[in-house]
Amino acid sequence: MALYLHDTLRARKLAFEPLVDGKVTMYLCGPTVYNYAHIGNARPAVVFDLLTRLLRRSYSLTFARNITDVDDKINAAAVETGRPIEEITARFIKAYNDDMATLGVLPPDIEPRATHHIAEMITMITGLIENGFAYEADGHVLFDVSTYAGYGQLSKRDLREMIAGARVEVAPYKRAAHDFVLWKPSTADMPGWESPWGRGRPGWHIECSAMARKHLGRTIDIHAGGQDLVFPHHENERAQSRCAHDGQPFARYWLHNGFLSIDSTKMSKSLGNVLLVRELVKTVPGEVIRLALLNAHYRQPLDWSEETVNAARRMLDRLYGALRGIFVPAEMRARIDAPPSVVAALEDDLNSPKAMAEVFQLARSLNKETNHDRRQELAAALLSAGELLGLMQNDAEEWFAGSDDGEMSVGDIEALIDKRNRARAESDFAAADSIRDQLAAAGVSIEDGPSGTRWRHSA
Ligand code: AMP
Ligand code: ZN
Q1: What is the sign, positive or negative, of the torsion defined by CA atoms of 274, 33, 192, 148?
Q2: In principle, which of 267, 320, 424, 458 could form an S-S bond with 399, CB 3.0–4.6 Å?
Q3: DSSP classification of residue 70
């Protein structure tokens, strides 16, 4: 089996080949820390967490997800709240990591912060100026887009058309409208660092180029982010990194996730429909949110609604129901891998919906199986698939103890089973059958065995 990934630059699915055999470097653009993460921000974190889990099966992976902790939005938040910048960024870095952990996102190997890499940015900018790719004007340093012939390739934009269509007023210090800022001056009340161009701060794009270079090298295997980052962020990162590195490729594969909307509407502050992960987890388990995000293919748009959440919850009910009451010895758990069909689905450009369909196939086989040893093996395979997907790692009993979503509660189910057993003991088979039907209608199947009646959610 081989891994295939869709590369935005070449606009197709390709067999994945890392630069160095057996090793993979991956960079994901992380959060700008001035607010809590919303469910849209969680999508790249979750889908690319799944990719890291898949990559780690076959490669030695170095995964960096940065923190943008210098940005005008952060400065604005500091002014608005009257709090120091460091306090704001520290608070939202912690909040981001806590929220992502709730969604089963594993910590990256490296979490570089922009403010810790100012020297690297200054070095990169200096080199770009020396080689004629950037120019200084009015305390700013700008990247001269006309020096890079490949500009527009990633986002499929034609620079000439862009220039012709530009309606923006061009800042007086720019030679051309699309030249972008590498460095800009800071007033005394703004965060700033001394540089050859005076006290200032970096532009957003140079941050990622400098951090990727420092931690992962000149050419990285995978660069990922949300689809809104293709232009201008990634187009600009690519231009400046290639020019800073003698034209060497910057990223071998560009991966972008589709956008998440809410009830068919774009999430936006002005519409008041921004759904924060922090709020959502108060009523929905993190695991349900994770599955809801993985139920759509990462490149497709995803519309978030009450039904998206309920569907994911019901799926987990069925999966934990299948696992319930089965003890899997640690040795067996370690020995039995996720089924090849699940791995193959993920290796096909991270087809998580297909992988989930395969997981359900396995759960159905488990529900039907009566042989004890075989049931244990199937449960072990299901748990291994869950580990790969970042799902089903909680105790099944705890899952049901915690679920209170209007479906029949564990207490109700067990009370009905007791009632049915009493009816059977009194040979009132009509009553017993009627209770069995009532449970079946609620999606609960029961099985009578030597150690009593067992039940599970039907898969
Ligand atoms: P930001 O902090 O705004 O730079 O966003 C962090 C990450 O979330 C980026 O990779 C964005 O592309 C991604 N993102 C933001 N909004 C959405 C959305 N509605 N759907 C999917 N991804 C999003
Ligand atoms: Zn970036």
Answers
A1: negative
A2: 320
A3: -
Q: Looking at residues 19-45, what average pLDDT do you find?
A: 97
Atom of ligand 1 at shortest distance to CA of 227? 12
Per DSSP, the three-state class of 303 is: strand
For residue 436, what are its two tokens? 């069995």
Which atom of ligand 1 lies closest to the CA of 30?
6
pLDDT tens per residue, range 369-388: 999 999 999 999 999 999 99
Cβ pair 410, 416 in contact under 8 A: no
Distance CA 246, CA 249 (A): 9
CA distance 123 to 244: 10
CA–centroid distance, residue 77 to ligand 2 (Å): 21
pTM of the model: 0.88
Q: How many angstroms separate the CA atoms of 221 and 305, rounded?
A: 35
pLDDT digits (tens, 9 = 90+) for 310-366: 999 999 999 999 999 999 999 999 999 999 999 999 999 999 999 999 999 999 999
Does the C-beta of 321 come closer than 6 Å to ligand 1?
no
Residue in 93, 228, 231 to alter for ligand 1 test, most ligand atoms within 8 A of Cβ: 228
DSSP state of 170: P
Q: Which token pair is 151?
A: 């500009």
